[in-house]
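Now for today's protein:

——
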Amino acid sequence: MPSVARRGKNGRARRGTVEQHVFEAVERLLAGGETYTALGIQRIADEAGIARSSFYLNFADKSDLLIRLADAATGDLFGVAEERLSSPEALTPEALRETFLSVVAEYRRNASALGALNEVAAYDAGVASFWRVRVEAFGDALRDRLRLDLAAGRVAPDLDVDFTAHWIVWGSERSVAQHVAAGATDDDRLATAVARSVWWTMYGGA
């Protein structure tokens, strides 16, 4: 759980630190069992130790807050996988397993924020669009890798790069999200199964 940030003498967050205070407040509330949909602006402001007016000076609304929170939370989540894809080293099943283990660990570390994202994306088009664009950006990195492997003869010549990448990124994202949301603990088993499936999808027909 995030550390509680210090407040000024009047109990309000100092100017310039509002965003971080709000992020931490929302994560505390979500970790305590509240749903993002049920959280009101005043409840968030009170937990963050800021005035309601300060919230609106920093965020357009709750959707804007959630998008920025999720964006901050997913830097490492996608970064570890994108780094692996950009490496010249072969994508072995073991390398993919280690990558997916790291992805699951990052998802679990940010489970409250990402759970709220999935909750709100079901009815908020702006939040859903943000997540779709973010996941597809990772899909673009995978497409680049597949095209390189295709040119090098490492994958089957008739491999459909676009739809293969689409299946891998969304299938993996949903698998990890549901795994963490269900409270499952056998991360290594999931990572091994997903890595094997991804590896065979990419290279099994070569």
Q: What stands out?
A: The chain has two domains: 1-59, 69-203. The domain at 1-59 is CATH 1.10.10 (Arc Repressor Mutant, subunit A). The two ends are 45 Å apart (CA to CA). Residues 125-151 form the longest helix (27 residues).
